């Protein structure tokens, strides 16, 4: 692929300070060689996007199979066939329905349901590791709320700014949060002297902070503002409109659809224009 022979022969030692730099040089050489004749998708600014790469994860992008074949690296996939592997030249790679990328769960259905479930599971593990502190009578309720907001809640909301959540996803997150708040505020004693579990409305009155779903929407909206103001690749990709129609049936809500719905609750209609005006 045009990598210098000396670089290939150099043995990579564990803990070598040059290993990361050598890896970047080798990968850069491979990418440049592979995309010499590549044709990607044309963005709104007339630039072409041919590949997206982060570390050793590379995604080749083309408008047609013929354009993809012009790259030095060709991935052959047959549509509508349940194949268990991907073939790259003479090499076979396992095909999976989901995988973890930068700590987030990516699946072939392009939804976040499993990701939300996994974040809740990981956050619960974090919470139960701190259960002695949440049960302690030496800590005040205010300290326990801070413990939840600073340590547990961020685990559940990791990468939530990119989620296109549904009502069901929001319900699961709400149940997770209320279970922790009930532990923090403890059961109450009724007129008969028996302990009762606190209701949802009472928890809201005691907590007096934005719910986990509310803070998720706020984080997502804030990220959308950065994306719409961006003049780089991330802004171009988000604003890009492919020249194809969405399939029939009820269309699945996209991330941008969820953001616009959140902003409608704030009486914001011209979302992109509003994002560009920082003073508002």
TrEMBL record:
It comes from the Eukaryota. Residues 1-106 form the Reverse transcriptase domain. GO terms for biological process: DNA biosynthetic process. Pfam families: RVT_1. InterPro entries: DNA/RNA_pol_sf (IPR043502), Rev_trsase/Diguanyl_cyclase (IPR043128), RT_dom (IPR000477). This is Retrovirus-related Pol polyprotein LINE-1. The lineage of its organism: Eukaryota, Metazoa, Ecdysozoa, Arthropoda, Hexapoda.
